[in-house]
């Protein structure tokens, strides 16, 4: 109820601070009998890991995960899976100057007023570092969904600051540090270099997709599948907008265009983004999110201190000039957690999960 | 867990179908001692009511609410408040032709595959009629928030189909059927008349705002205030996109621009939309939503029946050619429910609710 | 979260006051496709109904239930089932004298201090009348469990005041007003007549049983099946004690006696009461509850008023001299609700429900 | 939802297995600003610790707790408090002989059928070792309740096997290994020595009490304070019965006796056990629990193996011949967790917590 648990039946309780001794999570509700090793989880953690290119924070965290419980002889037992990641490369002195002042665009001000106390080291609990346990839990969900239904998750960057990124092919995503679906990323390298030199930051737009979706996931009236996707995505640090399917473009569409026709071979289009009435259609889930520019920048900003007096803030520390760059694997994990939870919720009430009836032609948008 | 309850501490359990005997909800967790009458709730229901202009469905429902419990001698007692609205103007025969076929853009297909059974009369449970109990519950939340903190909620239309609607003044909203913040709505009247004549429908964009917000509402890590707002809004029928503050525009913003500076007199701007790190800043909450064109249109659409065979669907019945028109009071209610729930969640853990420290200058975007 | 919802996946949200316009509940999470009519529910309501013998309250309520939603053409649709029972025989004037004083043994004192406001008519929300919606919801759960697994629920009285009631046969229970498993209930008739004449009340002990139980229901660590049974039973008005299996007698048992041996034909005994490690064994669930004497008695009692001054309270109104008499069908319903919820929770995580492997010999205690 | 989280607003998510690398919990919802160190928690862990007398298991675990998060500069921050306890003295080879057979009275059989997989080492997840994180979390709750309201918790043994233990004084409890409220425990030492020699085990009865209780805690209708106490206690390993106040004795009481009179100086008695209508009266909470004899005994028992064949089981390993002996601090912790959660739930809805109005005379039973 205090907001650190994600999901209901496949629930992830996240703990830790950016510069505390450790971060981690407890997954409750994982089905028993699934093969699971630390390596299965490490793969996605490595995709999210800081320090892997010059365009992201240079904090060097191995993010090595330890499974503390819930796995016996290489298989899940149905009991809670606790995952532990020790913090190793904290440099808390970078934050000495902001103990008593509020960084614009950051949670400093709101944590201070909410709790009356705040851990300023690396942003404490509000740091994007806390997405690591989410990614770890998402990796477990992905494994199960892949094995059960063949469902797969992927994400890519579709805009970097002012630069729209065309979609060429999913295969390019893993070969560049931007998760961009294009072969040539020189323009983005140059853009980021200039930005870093200017001491500034930029936003990004990320597309997230689930394919091989079962039909029927999602609980009307309030806990619609798309409602929970929006909750998951908007809850990710720095996200300011979420779209499903046609998103904001649907405002200017006509009903005769937007509504996806059905044919015996499947849907003829996917403006809905894979959800009708809050329930999955079996088409690809198509989600798009807007990520704001990083608030931690070297340029001096006007602010106030805890006494309400004017002050200037320059954020040192090691930061991502575009937090959107590392967002792709996190967004995938969040989408996987939503689908996983709804798969179990569906099974509880309806007892089985449908796939591919009638045949689904999962057209892209 | 089956998705028909909204909120945790101020929870609303919604029931009913479009053409069943009644719809309604049970509110649990309302603070005791608050004056409450049916008239307090009826006001917002009337703003949402069908049949009030030629641009919306001509179904004529009085939507008279009856308080069944939780109020004694005009005051809430702290026990569940059950609200009942009888359906009176069902015309189920309009739906005879879609019992065995799926209307494109509708929940028919997904309900059928999820549950194996579906109430086709008026869309059954998936009908936007079920937003009436949400509006009723929102009215109760608004009363308490107004009395406690002076918080107020309002919404207006900012785009109708292709037509952007400029913002003139909130005072205009109540004087036209579009909830448009402009004095002259002739262009929108004409637009809708043409659309109806064409048997087509269009989308809309709605802006929702809360002013007089307390500081500190919202639970990190997952149940952020903006995450729960996104959940609430995306869960509203036909919504395909949600923005907080600068929304998708923040992608192209620089960090030096986006991050709202703080001054001793308050924030200098509100790109954040009133939320930092998932917690309210005390500034106005600024939310924008995209509503897709109504799927129920007179133009014939390609579809399939429950046997997977091709068919054509023409949706008769009485429908809103732009469901966005009546969305403003619903979106207000949803925002009020989110804020209410977080106010109680905050009080549970932190024991008090802050306001206006330091002074908040709630700039618009 | 405010305590008026029972269960998680098969959840029952209860509303109403003893003398308000109506009582009822909303069931969320019922599996779709199950035949359900009002008559199915009415049967159990009639077993609990007041006014059926001279030993219970003479308030005459038909307790006619109306299904408001969730059922289409005689089958559940998977959407919320709202049940409404209008109150018809309120006599609120009986309560005029206790508006400002606290009846000993009643919730008057605690509601007053908790909420600062209290509906005194018939005990308001704290009345045992609110068990009627619980019984109605339990009837729905029973139907599903019977159809799915053959699980059945029954309860009987095993002690009335000082009088222990021997167990003869379940078949007797329906033939006497005490739910006593004996053929001759003259002693209990006489006992109650004397008690009523004395203006006093007595307690009772009730045994509740589920047979035909699936194996594997119950969630360790905290939400054990027996933990949730204890929660359900202790939450019933006037209950002061709960036992599972051997109960308090197990304190003086040796381990060599208590632990139920397993044989290829099943368990050799059932001291466990059908639960090991919080999970059902497939044996009969055996539960026993202690019900305190009715607090509403004609004999004058010392008390205080809302100003803290001494006063005497005589409770008029129409009360059960032994609330335990009507407790049997309520306890059955509560046990059914617990088993139902755990059946769905099990299915969510583990995907199937086991029965009878290896063969279960469900010995009684 | 999978049963490993206790509480709603002050929630404890427990993880670990008896012989896994670690056990622990995540506390979510702790109010911010409370001083907290590892020593505060260690004290109660040490009271529960194995290996402290010859009458309990000789497994030697230091149970040293590490705070991983949620505390900054010695104070709680309002973010999750993760507590980690490494297992150090596992001797899993003791369990080799029960990998394929079910120990009578144990969870082996039910885990196997529920999950299809089971960690047999030390009972895995079903081990009473998992009460350690509960005790740790309870210590945090106790600190806050003591500081806020002066509420205090204590427990003692009132029966050991057939031997009733008279109540002399609370002060004796800490001076003997039985948590017995008497000066001379020689009889219990002898009893246990004989039992151990016989390779058998016995049960116990424990009394738990909270004093300095606020008035008004508890949520009707279902989440009554006593309902949640019963849930907590029955969920503790080996508990088979729970009583509040007069408990099962109330069955034979008359209403004129049972109902506690109120006087201007407070209640005249406490048959209710501190709860009326599910809400705390401000009197002492009085709870009594029945603990079954340990199932792990050296005497050979009839059982079956996973193939359904007859076998004999002798449980080696290091076990408590009376698990009730170490139950006192655990039962205290559980009661503290229930009261803590309800204190926050009350504050959420009602905004303040009452104490001592009118003066409460907390009589013992």
Automatic annotation (TrEMBL), chains A, B, C, D:
Q: Which reaction does it catalyse?
A: 5-O-(1-carboxyvinyl)-3-phosphoshikimate = chorismate + phosphate
Entries under Pfam families matching the protein: Chorismate_synt
Positions annotated to bind FMN: 125-127, 237-238, 277, 292-296, 318
Cofactor(s) it depends on:
FMNH2
Q: Which residues form a coiled coil?
A: none
Annotated signal peptide:
none
Cofactor binding remark: Reduced FMN (FMNH(2)).
Q: List UniProt keywords, sorted A-Z.
A: Amino-acid biosynthesis, Aromatic amino acid biosynthesis, FAD, Flavoprotein, FMN, Lyase, NADP
Cite the annotated pathway. Metabolic intermediate biosynthesis; chorismate biosynthesis; chorismate from D-erythrose 4-phosphate and phosphoenolpyruvate: step 7/7
* Residues bound to NADP(+): 48, 54
Gene Ontology MF annotations: chorismate synthase activity
Keyword flag Amino-acid biosynthesis: yes
InterPro entries per the record?
A: Chorismate_synth (IPR000453), Chorismate_synth_AroC_sf (IPR035904), Chorismate_synthase_CS (IPR020541)
EC number(s) reported in the record = 4.2.3.5
Mind telling me which PANTHER family this protein's record contains? CHORISMATE SYNTHASE
What family does this belong to?
Answer: Belongs to the chorismate synthase family.
- Quaternary state and partners of this protein? Homotetramer.
Biological function: This reaction introduces a second double bond into the aromatic ring system.
Return the protein name. Answer: Chorismate synthase
Instruction: State the organism named in the record.
Output: Acidovorax bellezanensis
């Amino acid at each position: 109820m205090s907001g650190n648990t994600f999901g209901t039946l496949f629930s992830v309780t996240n703990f830790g601070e950016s510069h505390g001794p450790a971060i981690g999570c407890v997954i409750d509700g994982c089905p028993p009998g699934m093969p699971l090793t630390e390596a299965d989880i490490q793969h996605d953690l490595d995709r999210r890991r800081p320090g892997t290119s010059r365009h992201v924070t240079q904090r060097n965290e191995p993010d090595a995960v330890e499974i503390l419980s819930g796995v016996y002889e290489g298989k899940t037992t149905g009991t809670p899976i606790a995952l532990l990641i020790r913090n190793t490369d904290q440099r808390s002195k970078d934050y000495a100057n902001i103990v008593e002042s509020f960084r614009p665009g950051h949670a400093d001000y709101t944590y201070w007023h909410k709790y009356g106390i705040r851990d300023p080291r690396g942003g404490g609990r509000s740091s994007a570092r806390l997405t690591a346990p989410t990614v770890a839990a998402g990796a477990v969900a992905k494994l199960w969904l892949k094995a059960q239904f063949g469902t797969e998750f992927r994400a890519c960057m579709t805009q970097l600051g002012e630069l729209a990124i065309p979609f060429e092919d999913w295969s390019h995503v893993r070969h560049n540090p931007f998760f961009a679906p294009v072969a040539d990323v020189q323009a983005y390298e140059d853009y980021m270099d200039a930005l870093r030199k200017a001491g500034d930051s930029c936003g990004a737009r990320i597309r997230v997709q689930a394919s091989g979706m079962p039909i029927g996931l999602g609980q009307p009236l309030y806990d619609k599948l798309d409602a929970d996707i929006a909750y998951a995505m908007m809850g990710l640090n720095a996200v300011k907008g979420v779209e499903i399917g046609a998103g904001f473009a649907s405002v200017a569409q006509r009903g005769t265009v937007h509504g996806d026709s059905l044919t015996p071979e499947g849907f003829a289009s996917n403006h809905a983004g894979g959800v009708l009435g809050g329930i999955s259609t079996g088409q690809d889930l198509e989600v798009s999110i807007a990520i704001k520019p990083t608030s931690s920048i070297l340029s001096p900003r006007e602010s106030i201190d805890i006494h309400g007096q004017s002050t200037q803030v320059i954020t040192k520390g090691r930061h991502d000039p575009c937090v959107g760059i590392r967002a792709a694997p996190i967004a995938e994990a969040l989408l996987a957690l939503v689908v996983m939870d709804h798969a179990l919720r569906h099974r509880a009430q309806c007892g089985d999960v449908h796939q591919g009836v009638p045949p689904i032609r999962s057209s892209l948008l």
